Amino acid sequence: xxxxxxxxxxxxxxxxNDSPLSVDNxxxxxxxxSIVVLGASGDLAKKKTFPALFNLYKQGFLLANEVCIFxxxxxxxxxxxxxxxxxGYLVKEKDASPEKLETVSKFLHLIKYVSGSYxxxxxxxxxxxxxxKHESTTNTAEGSSRRLxxxxxxxxxxxxxxxxxxxxxxxxxxxGGWTRIVVEKPFGKDLESAEQLSTQIGGxxxxxxxxxxxxxxGKELVQNMLVLRFANRFFLPLWNRDNxxxxxxxxxxxxxxxxxxxxxxQYGIIxxxxxxxxxQIFCLVAMEKPVSMRPEHIRDEKxxxxxxxxxxxxxxxxxxxxxxxxxxxxxxxxxxxxxFASVILRVHNERWEGVPFILKAGKALDSRKADxxxxxxxxxxxxxxxxxxxxxxxxxxxxxxxxMYMKLTVKQPGLxxxxxxxELDLSYRQRYHDVTIPEAYERLILDTIRGDQQHFVRxxxxxxxxxxxxxxxxxxxxxxxxxxxxxxxxxxxxQADELLEKAGYVQTHGYIWIPPTL
Length: 518
Ligand SMILES: NC(=O)C1=CN([C@@H]2O[C@H](COP(=O)(O)OP(=O)(O)OC[C@H]3O[C@@H](n4cnc5c(N)ncnc54)[C@H](OP(=O)(O)O)[C@@H]3O)[C@@H](O)[C@H]2O)C=CC1
Ligand SMILES: O=C1O[C@H](COP(=O)(O)O)[C@@H](O)[C@H](O)[C@H]1O
Hints:
By secondary structure, this protein is α/β, with parallel strands linked by helices. It has two domains: 22-184, NAD(P)-binding Rossmann-like Domain (Rossmann fold, 3-Layer(aba) Sandwich); 217-378 and 425-438 and 458-502, Dihydrodipicolinate Reductase, domain 2 (2-Layer Sandwich). The protein is built from 14 helices and 15 strands. It binds NADPH dihydro-nicotinamide-adenine-dinucleotide phosphate (NDP) and the ligand O=C1O[C@H](COP(=O)(O)O)[C@@H](O)[C@H](O)[C@H]1O. Residues 248, 250, 373, 395, 403, 405, 423, 425, 427, 491, 497, 500, 507-508, 511, 513 line the site of NADPH dihydro-nicotinamide-adenine-dinucleotide phosphate.
């Protein structure tokens, strides 16, 4: 019981009660709530946003007597048509018990559809009228209602949509209510375009109203990173250049761009994954201890470590493109866009000088996974000759099947004195039987409603992240950096493994993991 209370206090209450800097006065926790999903007919909305809202509803975080969800898009369809389109994304046919179907129906009845364009004031006034109508049906004091606008849209329309929201759809008075907007990546294509977008949106909304979402920050093990680092005595003295040889942050997908080639070709893997998802993880691994868990304290530290990253050297980069990528008719025949990249970041500060951080991401590779691998230095004066077997590693596997394990050397059980590689293993499925790990979007949307910006990217953070990658990206765009072809289903270009070795990573040999049985 005590442990549970303590955990909850760290997880939420302390953040909320203790964090005046984090929120736009945090606002009311109940009363009328209007969630507007702009781009309601799109892929992201159907696959991620609405299912996340449904899960929040199922768990009682969205109350039927308070909430109305508005889908907004250009397509002219009725409320019922939108609901029918969404139904299949909320419940799989095989799980469709009568109870589940009833819950889905109740949720779908909270959804209304408004059709309009993204730059028409009239259309947004119509949306505002619908929102006000909903607000008048709940017992909420005027102006204390909550309005959340989720931009599940391409960034090209962010400026016009933000302007329309500001002109026509803001919460009407300052009686403690709020208006917040959630924006998705890609947030710009380089430093200049990101800053331009930030200036446009920043001219309309205050920073505490803007939630730049990076869904990797909502993944369970990413959320665990600060607890792990700063609540455990084990790690505190080890987490530095004296003990750590190298760090890998890896994202792999075993499928290609799958019909998204047209979009992907304009961005490439660095903009799609590394500049945002992997760099956010990098921040949490490398940052100093924040003064407190207040969102601004955490984000201050993230900015500091980003600003300590040295310019990326050519010899620290390997780019690849899988064979068959250009077969997609929406991808130009001569595309040089990388679908794979391995980039070493070097941090110029007291803790990390000399420790390479290898950020690797690729599509159409040999497996699907995302993990963080901290490799420790060899033990000095090794008397057991265990260096031949492998180094200590601490691995956090974000997906699939959340786990963290420490690879370590132990005595081989038995009469002989010999050593063997083994592990201390925390596999979430085994350890937490009754816990359903929430989807990243679910958690992050709940944070936007609660006004907790801890897991969202602040403007200066975004700027610092683009500063790191923009020079390299410009060179790739100009064709000055070539992508090496690799076979679909492989580990990517062999040059990436050579880079890893050059960075000092020592592969473990002969390590066999035997999954525990219950
Ligand atoms: N709780 C659990 O679920 C646990 C599971 N295990 C499992 O045991 C197995 C072994 O674990 P572990 O040793 O940590 O991980 P892996 O065998 O997955 O990989 C170890 C490292 O070697 C790299 N690598 C693989 N091939 C090459 C190569 N040819 N050249 C250079 N580098 C290479 C991997 O790179 P890359 O990242 O590019 O693939 C990775 O960094 C895994 O399947 C793991 O999931 C182990 C412990 C606990
Ligand atoms: O943001 C993106 O992420 C997905 C991978 O997300 P995951 O949660 O399934 O790991 C990736 O496929 C997509 O290209 C990228 O835009």
